[in-house]
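Justification of computing resources. Each target in the renewal requires a structure prediction run like the one illustrated here; the chain below, 203 residues long, is used simply to show the kind of job we budget for.
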Amino acid sequence: MRRAPWWVLLSAGGAPLLLVGASAIAQVLQGPAYNPAVETLSILASYGARGYWLMTGILLVLGACYMATAHGLREAALPGRLALAGGGLAAMILTLVPAPLSGGQLAHGAVAATGFVLLAVWPALATNRRRRPVPWGLRFKVSVVASTLMCLCAVWFVFELRSGQSPGVAERVVTFVQAVWPLVVAVSCRVWAGPGGPLPTES
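Resulting structure tokens:
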């Protein structure tokens, strides 16, 4: 089995850093009228928002990070890698259907929901039960727990959207968890010695 290349740590680690950093800057640009607890990240990337171009660019880079990570996680099963790459593609497509400053938009919601689902299920799809042993981050029980946690966070987000209490908080939690998990898997793949002992590092 080929080992995950070193650069997968860069693509996987870049996703959560870019997501948190860019949203924080965009929030400052938007000003005190923006309430991060109630308003979602989509508002920061909407037409007319002061951080529109920043968030649009970050969505493109974020999507590229997910797709690069999917390509580099050689130990993961193909269905999971495709789901992760699909989540990255959904992030890129969001730039074509940004949400309005107020109210909802069906196309934006559909693409965002697709991305959330793909990024939630990819850990469970990435585990390979036919091959023993596997890196810690790709073990069946660990992967199922990760997917379950992400699905629960997504359900919480939907509930908050309907109640209007704190959808911004819920969205930030689910997007951060989904952005961090590929890094967890990438690290476990890099430190894994493999069934036959240490493997040589590939570029």
